[in-house]
Specification:
Length: 331
Amino acid sequence: MPVMPCALTDAAGVPLGFERTSRNSEFEAGQLFERYDTNRSGTLELGEFQLFFRDFKKQLAPFVDEMLAAFHATPPLSRMGFDSAGLPRRHPPTNSFGEPTTTNPWQQRPPNHDSSQRVFDTRHLYESKLDQLHALSEKTLRHLQLQKLDHGQYPRHQAATATLPTWTRHAPPPSMMPHHHHNTSAPRWHDMDELERDLAFVDRIYTDTTKFMEQAHRVVSIEDMNAFLDEFPRMHGMVQQIAAKTYAQSPPVNSHQPTHSSSKNDVDRDKLVKVKDQMIWGLLQERNELRRQRDAIDAQFRHMTELSAQEMRKWAKLTDDMQAEIERLRG
């Protein structure tokens, strides 16, 4: 019995046609094609088709099952003969003992099914591990940035990297090399340098994983996915080790340094503080003097302005009186 066409829906459950008018179906099928044709080439590449198949796998299963059933119901030409009337006669398949066997079409799969399933499983594993590494690197990056703020601002040394991310380029920091842990009793003089290197290393991993996650429909080759999966245990382990590390705020004091050096430094610091206080006191006095001069100039300006206004009012009154006297004499 043929399977009736079903209505394809997107992730939000909005139907995409195929049960409405043929014109709507063609229009919405074109919209569906353009949604997955990310590079606008007019054809769906392997990665784009895998995304389409993953989104509509459940709805396309009845069509695929019907096609497989029709394909396996037709015997190969080598198993066909002719009866006495000249009509083709089909021979059922037999086992090694010559007995007829029944073939279940539901147990048969096309030759390329295994490879397609492997690609789909690889992509699913790649995306899940990418999300896991991105979340861990983001959490570790925030932790290292807080440690850097707690310990003060230090110059950051970052190695130049290429623009395109390559997983094999992420070399571990020197603090994670095997020879770094030979002498565990040695004083940790470069803890802040380790913090800078670890911060740069985790920042590169976070930046690269963010770039890959932002390109949701990017066509990633199977070689790139396998390369990432091969490098994932090493990178994930290194980020976990960095997240568990602690950093000293300042290097330890050298026991061979003379004890009077600290007192000498204190005396020099006190002298510098006194000079600084004297400079600040002088600047404050100069500021107060400038303020007094400014206030005096402002007061003098206001006084002159008032005198000018009084003089103008006086001349205006005299002009009015003279005009009135002239009008009186004319009358």
